[in-house]
Design goal:
Layout (H helix, E strand, L loop, with lengths): L11 H9 L3 H4 L2 E9 L9 H19 L2 H7 E5 L3 E8 L1 H8 L6 E4 L2 E4 L32 E6 L40 E6 L2 H7 L15 H10 L3 E6 L2 E6 L7 E6 L1 E5 L2 E4 H14 L3 E4 L1 E2 L9 H11 L3 E5 L18 E6 L3 E9 L4 E5 L11 E4 L11 H5 L8 H4 L3 E5 L5 H10 L4 E5 L17 E4 L1 H13 L4 E4 L3 E4 L27 E4 L3 E4 L18 E4 L2 H18 L5 H10 L21 H4 L6 H4 L4 E2 L4 H10 L4 H8 L20 E3 L5 E10 L4 E8 L4 E6 L2 E4 L5 E10 L8 E9 L4 E9 L1
Helix pairs in contact: 3-4, 7-14, 8-9
């Protein structure tokens, strides 16, 4: 499925023009990250003097390759001086290769462009969502979570939003070391006791363009994505929030009392990326130093080696310092093997629907009624209008494909004027199709899914009366239009409807497993609301983010794993407030093992074509915040466990010791990857029988847990022992899981199951994925 994007400000044309004018000398060099691992100094010892010494050591090191310290100073545009040790520099390929051979260097990798994980033509922020997720009374206590700090790596923040007001908030936590970075614009930028910090990082973005290209130095969000995601994670309560009168209610983030900090690492799309590795690493390095508790990261790229992946490296250093890192899974579904952000120390989130929709119906003259969704701000009179298929609306000099997609300029005004046009989803933005219809004189649009999008319909803030319908309904509609002598219909105004079913089901765009880097680590880990989410928005753009849209809104809808990620970040923040002594892996385990795999009809969760979904889509299931607060047992992991995992992948002790910057050597008997104490089980090549070990820690009341197994088809699963008795909090118990194919002919596709430990009150679920 395509990743649908909005257009971006025309200012980017200046960037591209500047890029084309680059001299051959500049074009011969590319930007690279040289990564040494961690620092010998502790994070709390990262004084200004210490950081200056680190910068100087980077100049000395690179100077030894380039011939002088002065050349190194010209080449380096970032020195990572706090938690992460390394630098970013403009180098020739041969220079980068030579540096990579140095024994003190862990990796040298390109300054890659990552993408924001939004489908960009746009569920209600936070967990209240008109009753979608019932709340524990604990979550709603006054000031609960006020000492938790949630950071967001994204496009920054719109500080004037009501979601970041600081009414009633006490002093900023003393642990906070961050800043509210000044900007070079005439528009003032202010932080407060809610929005306690904001920084921007764009030197990596500049290096991919031209060091002299204009890029605004400001943490202000001019695209809307960062404001949307940060308010979803931890926006303050805003009564009466709405978008064009739809979805009206109390807006609030997942952890509404938490403090927030914005790290702007993403900029207008160029050269296939928006968030460049060098800037992402700089954002991580600062956030770790500043003192955040949770990092929400709604961006990513194609999966690569962990030690050449800026998100994997940055998140490892964050987790090492007790920070839970939550990342989006990506929007490249429903194709298998597309999931990104797959390192085991990351909590990776897919996207699914909720039980609220913005229903807008198509009424046909033959009395057929088709249900769609929309957030159009304008309406049609309730009378019949002529309907026209995109093929019939085609301009004579344009292709059928262009007309079918309603590409701008592909529709013939003489054929379209005064009619409702049917457009097919794909290629260009959903809302852009409506603008193409409007420009051609059409009075309305019916957007029909292509086959790959199935039943996933999204409510967008269209610029004309429009509605979005499923693939099967689109087939039926086109059949009517082509067979009727005079096809007529009209579109009703949208209405907010609750208790829609089935819900949740998986979004078609949500990236799927298996994990292509380490298949033994099941990804994504979990799914959360990510379709038609309403949250705070920038004041710089209209709700479609397209240049022609002059409307301005306080709240907007968006869809993508970018939207599901901060839902889970908010839950992680609540758990950090409730259990401040829990490790990031304990928080992650609580969220994963408490998830559900049933929808609101008590049937197994489905995908967008209403076929049964599986753990490659949803991981352990749909997030349940209230269950996560008291999970009973957790699968805990330490930094050393992750280092042992890297050893099992073939990294040597020298590399890993540098990665950690503390004494470490790989175990004499390497860890089996399957034995990493992960809250899920994945076997990618089962031959014979495989046994693996897991350890669970009691974080609830004393009790005895019994195991129940739902075996994958054709696979036998045995667990020993079958009972675990816990006498106190913090007690740990091991168990062994053995998997074996029941017969030879089960080889081929993955099969799925799960094991559940329960004491009658808690249900600790572990998904299983096996390929024989």
């Amino acid at each position: 499925m395509e990743i649908e994007r909005k257009s971006f400000p025309s200012l980017l044309l200046l960037f591209l023009f500047s890029f084309l004018l680059q001299t051959p000398t500049f074009a011969a060099k590319k930007s690279y990250i040289v990564y040494f691992g961690g620092h010998s100094h502790r994070l709390e010892e990262a004084s200004l003097l210490t950081q200056e010494r680190v910068v100087d050591s980077h100049y000395e090191f690179l100077g030894s390759f380039l011939g002088s310290k002065e050349k190194a100073q010209d080449a380096i545009f970032y020195s990572y001086t706090k938690s992460i040790n390394g630098f970013a520099a403009n180098l020739e390929e041969e220079e980068a290769m030579e540096i990579s051979k140095h024994p003190g260097v862990i990796s040298v990798f390109p300054n890659r462009g990552h993408k924001l994980h939004t489908t960009h033509s746009w569920e209600f922020m936070g967990l209240e969502t008109n009753g979608v997720v019932p709340e524990s009374s604990l979550w709603t206590k006054a000031n609960f979570g006020k000492d938790v700090i949630i950071g967001n790596l994204d496009t920054g923040v719109w500080p004037e939003s009501e979601s970041f007001k600081d009414d009633g908030m006490g002093p900023i936590p003393s642990k906070w070391k961050g800043i509210c970075q000044k900007n070079d614009t005439n528009i003032p930028f202010h932080c407060n006791k809610k929005l306690i910090g904001a920084r921007y990082f764009n030197d990596g973005y500049r290096s991919a363009l031209d060091p002299f290209a204009y890029v605004e130095d400001s943490p202000r969000d001019y695209e809307g994505h960062g404001t949307h995601t940060l308010s979803t994670a931890a926006g303050a309560k805003v009564p009466g929030a709405t978008l064009f009168g739809y979805g009206t209610g109390m807006a609030k983030g997942g952890a509404p009392n938490a403090r927030v900090a914005a790290y702007k690492v993403c900029w207008p799309p160029v050269l296939g990326g928006e968030c460049f590795s060098a800037d992402v690493l700089a954002g991580f390095d600062s956030a770790i130093h500043d003192g955040v508790d949770v990092l929400s990261v709604s961006l990513g790229g194609d999966p690569v080696d962990y030690l050449e992946d800026a998100v994997a490296i940055g998140s490892f250093h964050a987790v090492k310092h007790g920070i839970t890192v939550v990342c989006s899974a990506g929007n490249s579904g429903p194709t298998l093997g597309t999931v990104s952000n797959v390192a085991p120390w990351i909590l990776t989130v897919g996207a699914s629907t909720i039980d609220r929709e913005f229903a807008s119906y198509v009424h046909l003259r033959n009395r057929q009624q088709i249900k769609g969704q929309s957030l159009s701000s304008v309406s049609l009179q309730q009378k019949f209008y002529s309907l026209i298929s995109p093929e019939d609306a085609r301009k004579s000099n344009r292709s059928i494909e262009d007309a079918t997609q309603c590409i701008s300029g592909a529709l013939d005004p003489t054929k379209v004027r005064g009619k409702i046009v049917i457009c097919i989803r794909g290629t260009n933005d959903r809302v852009e199709k409506g603008e193409a219809v409007r420009q051609a004189g059409g009075i309305g649009m019916i957007l029909a899914n292509d086959e790959s999008s199935g039943n996933e319909v999204i409510a967008d803030a269209h610029v004309l009366p429009a509605t979005h319908i499923s693939y099967s309904d689109g087939v039926s509609l086109l059949s009517y239009v082509k067979s009727a002598k005079s096809p007529l219909g009209y579109i009703t105004s949208p209405k907010t409807m609750l208790d829609a079913f089935p819900a949740p089901f998986m979004a078609a765009f949500s990236s799927r497993g298996p994990n292509t880097i380490t298949p033994e680590i099941l990804k994504p880990d979990i799914t959360a609301p990510g379709v038609s989410i309403i949250a705070a928005y920038t004041g710089a753009l209209g709700p479609t983010s397209l240049d022609f849209d002059s409307r301005r809104v306080l709240f907007n809808t968006d869809s993508g794993t970018s939207m599901s990620c901060p839902h889970v970040s908010g839950v992680a923040g609540l758990l950090k407030a409730l259990h401040p002594d829990w490790s990031p892996s304990a928080i992650k385990s609580a969220i994963i093992t408490s998830a559900r795999t049933q929808d609101n009809t008590l049937e197994p969760m489905s995908n967008s074509t209403f076929q049964k979904a599986d753990p490659f889509s949803y991981g352990s299931g749909h997030v349940r915040p209230n269950r996560a607060m008291d999970p009973g047992l957790v699968y805990d992991l330490t930094t050393n466990d992750y280092l042992n995992f890297l050893c099992s992948l073939g990294y040597n002790s020298t590399q890993i010791a540098g990665f950690n910057r503390e004494p470490y050597s790989c175990p004499s008997k390497p860890l089996k990857i399957e034995d990493l104490n992960y809250p899920s089980i994945a076997i990618s090549n089962l031959t014979g029988a495989v046994s693996l070990i897991r350890t669970v820690k009691n974080v609830g009341t004393p009790g005895t847990y019994k195991v129940r197994v739902m075996e994958p088809a054709g696979i036998s699963v045995s667990v020993k022992p079958r009972k675990l008795k816990f006498d106190k909090v913090g007690e740990e118990k091991k168990f062994v899981v053995t998997l074996k194919a029941k017969r030879r002919d089960v080889a081929g596709d993955y099969a799925f199951g799960k094991l559940v430990w329960s004491d009658g009150k808690h249900y600790v679920r572990t998904p299983i994925a096996v390929k024989a």
